[in-house]
Structure formats: C-alpha cells, structure tokens
Amino acid sequence: MASSPAVPNLVFRQLRGPRSPGEFAALVRRAAREIGEQVACDARYIGRVEAGEIRCPNYAYERVFLHMFPGSTLADLGFSARETVRGRAARDRTPPPPDTYNSTDSTYSNEESDVLRRAFMTSGTVTVAAASLGLGGSLPGVDGLRHGLRADVPRQRIGESEVGAVEEAVRRIRLLDDRHGAEGLYQRATQPLRTAYALLDAGATTRGSTAGRLAAGAGELSLSVGWLAHDSGRLEDARSHYAEALATARVAGDPALEAHAFCNTSFLARDAGRHREAVRAAQAGQRAAGQLSSARLLALLNLREAGGWAGIGDRSGCEQALSRAHTLFGRGPSDADPEWMSFFGEAELQALEAQCWSALGDWARAARHAQRATALKDPHFARNLALYRAQLAADLAHADAPAEAAAAGEQVLDALGDVQSSRIRVMLAETARVLTPRRGTAGVAGFLDRHAETARMAALTR
C-alpha cells in the first residue's frame, strides 16, 4: 500500500519551544480539562505530530489546540486541511457541536463510533473489511471477521492507516471506560479486537516499525478489552484476553507490552483470590519493565506486588513493596512512561495502598488513604473517582464510621447513572451489608434504602 512520505510539522515543533514532548503533552491534557475535553496525549503523540505522521488532528484535539493558541487555525499550527487528509467523506460531513462530545446520550456514542469507522474506511481490501473496528453497531457480515479475513484476504503489507486506526481504537476504548465504566462497552469492544488480530495475521509479511506498532496495538487492544471484561465481572474472559496479549508480546519481543500484560494479570489474580499468582505476575512484570526507563511503571508493578502480599496476609512483604513503590513514584514521570498509564497519578497510588491496608484488616489506615485518593482524583476520570469513593465507603463502614460511610456511599450512588461497573456495585453491596446493623445512625437508613432500590432496578435491566 503506497503512501506519501510524512512531512515534518516544524511549526508545531516551534510552538513546543524548550519543553520536552512529555511536558508539552501534559499542557495539552491540562488545556483539554479546561474546556471539558479529555485526550490521551503523551510524548509519543506529540512526536508523531511533529514528525508529520498526524497531518490533521481529530475533532477533540482540534478544539484543544485551538484553545491553547487562541486566534489560530489548524493551518497556522502546521496541519493540513481536513478535506485533503480524509477525502470527500469529510467534506460532506459537518462536525458535531462541541457539547455532543461530552454528553452521555446516543449522539456522543455515535460520534465515538464514527471516529473509529472513518479511521478504517481507507483504500485496500483489508481496511475496508476492517470497518468493524468502530464501537457502535455492527456491519453486515462482520461476525467471525477475524477468521473470515484469514481465509479470504491475501497476506499483504499493512500501512499507517491500519496501524493508526488500531491505536486510535485503544485510546477511544480507554476514554469511554474512564467516563462511563466497562459495562455495556465490553461486548461492542470484542469486535474491533477480532479485527485487529485479523489485520495482524493478514499483515504477516509486514516488517520494521509498522509491524512492531501493529503487534503492540493489537496487544494493547486485547488488554483494554480484557480490562472491560475484568471490570464488568467476566474474570475468565479477562484472563483469556490478558493471556492473548502476553503471547503477542512474547512473539513480538515487546517488553513494554509484556510488562503491561503482567501488570493486568497480577491485578486480575488478586481480584480472583489467587494472591500468590498476583505476586509472581507482578514480579515478572518488573523484570520485563527493567528493560525500559519508566520509574512510574515499576512503581505500579510494585503496588501490584504489594496487593498480592496483602492478600496472602504477609504484612512485611506488603510494606517492602509499598516502600519501593513510593520511592519509584517519587522519581517523577518521564517520556518513557507508557501511554496507558495516564490514569496513574498520586490518587491511584493512594487508592492502591488503601486496598492493601483493607486486605490486611487495617481499616482506619485504609480509609485515610482512600480519602486522599478521592480528594486528589481528576473529576474527568469519573469511573475511577466513583471507585475510590466506593473503596472509601467500604473502609469507613469497617472502621466503624457509619455516618461517614453512608455519605460516601451516597456519592457513589449519584455517579451510577453515568458509570457502570460491577466492581463498584460489589463494593457498595459490601458497604450496605456492614452498615445494615447500624441502620439507626443518621444517614444510614437513607443510603440503605436507596442502595436497595438501585440494586433492584439494576437487576431488572440486566
């Protein structure tokens, strides 16, 4: 598949000035929050823009960049006109108003799906078939697409369009999960995963950086879909997806993907009660991550190890792993931090430590860390904020602070209209169970009644 050589965007490089790509990416994310948008911008994305690989940003990035540089146009920032990049379909399409990207109705979901479909509707047999990478709806004949492509599509070289679409699918799934949680998203996300692996198989003769990026993209998509299964209570499905990602990493010789796969596997093992497996997986992830230069990744893997030790009841092992995690985290972020770790800040560190103390039965200490997590969390990560509050409610209930637990639980119930997560519901159910004998305490009865009604309505809709 022929493609025009990328032309470096020197204007954008000048706008970055003396800042590192990672520092500039942080400014982009901050600007996005200022206008109620969220983009998964990292140093690699900035590098791709400056290298000319991204000739025109999607609509979300466009609004962010124009907010950062008032009065500028995309051309002023060194980008090509959208119609020259995306063809006639883009010329015929009027972009939706900004508020549709932040709504929770069908307009928002349709826009997210359309972005992915457009990314794949380019020339070439493989990419036309791969239109199913969109998250919305299904297209005729796409069931079993992965196996169909193996039989019907000749092996050929895969280009930038296909690889970029797989990478964009990963970002979009993570964005939707951050905003709304996993339930309702998992089944739709399995279809683009099948397509991504079909592309990987169809492009078996592809070599060089494109092959590496495609393998990494397919593996990361498998991990993202596995996380959706994990968070919605489908633990065996999650285990299968994580194993597929790990196999992809091993075949491709990709230590970053391998570390991510072990990180998720450790988390899943802990949630499934296989605590020694959680420790071993976290340690294996640390060995893979040792080939990289990300202290934050190693910090997260040590937190996963700490969670495993806590589940076993080994307080000493847990404390040692926590100490290493804090030391590594204190070294700060770097350009080598993986894109998927955008969620991992001080709030997540505090929340994961809270989980360790909960597992060890030190409820008051757990509640203190959970409280810090809720105070620090970026409200744009709606799902994680609801999870931290659910953790706080459970810890307070066990720490014999029923009124405070009920208040925290009420905040979680407020979020359940937009956030759907079985993990959060399980934590709320545990809080309600512990608080039931304290029904006479101020605020507890109201929480219990509301929780019971919410659980009843959820059961009716499942």
TrEMBL record:
Q: Which InterPro entries match?
A: TPR-like_helical_dom_sf
Cite the Gene3D superfamilies for this sequence.
Tetratricopeptide repeat domain
Superkingdom assignment: Bacteria
Annotated region described as Disordered, given as residue ranges: 86-109
Q: Quote the protein name from its UniProt record.
A: Tetratricopeptide repeat protein
